[in-house]
Amino acid sequence: MVSRLNPYISFDGDARPAMEFYKEVFGGTLALNTFGESGAAGTPQADNIMHALLETPSGFTLMAADTPPGMEYSKGGNFSVSVSGDDEAELRGYWEKLSAGGTVSVPLEKQMWGDVFGMCTDRFGIPWMVDIVQAKA
């Protein structure tokens, strides 16, 4: 898997209809994962989207999620740039450089879905997500 760079949009509870709309616009394959499927079953957010991935025939990649509980939603400031792949050394190198002089909001560490993931805002105020995809067993 090569590393990829793409936008990641945050929504306030309407990620599912938004991503279904983008699928209608761009075509492609849409994968949706809910908070309930990721350990938050039985909560008010269980049906909200924890992660959405749209991959289009034109080579576009668009990711999105509903804003999780405890994080503030800010319309207009609701995007991040996501870098993901399986080359751990390469992605950790990006993380070190992007987070240097910036602010780390989620440390780069193993998450409940199995990947190593972190979020930071670089010294220029751009929000980044780095996801080191773990090999499927």
Structure notes:
The chain has helices spanning 15-26, 88-99, and strands at 4-11, 29-34, 49-55, 61-66, 79-85, 103-110, 116-121, 127-132. With 137 residues, it is of the alpha+beta class. An eight-stranded mixed β-sheet has the order 2-3-4-1-5-8-7-6, with helices on one face.
Summary keywords:
single chain; 137 residues; alpha+beta; 2,3-Dihydroxybiphenyl 1,2-Dioxygenase, domain 1; eight-stranded mixed β-sheet; 39% strand; PhnB-like
Q: CATH architecture, please? A: Roll
Which structural class fits the helix and strand makeup? Answer: alpha+beta
What's the CATH class, please? Alpha Beta
Percentage of residues in DSSP E strands:
35-45%
Indicate the radius of gyration in whole angstroms.
15 Å
Organism: Streptomyces aurantiacus
Protein name: VOC family protein
Pfam family, one: Glyoxalase
Domain Glyoxalase/fosfomycin resistance/dioxygenase: 5-130
Task: Draw up the topology in text.
Layout: E1 4-11, H1 15-26, E2 29-34, E3 49-55, E4 61-66, E5 79-85, H2 88-99, E6 103-110, E7 116-121, E8 127-132
Parallel strand pairs: 1-4, 5-8
Antiparallel strand pairs: 1-5, 2-3, 3-4, 6-7, 7-8
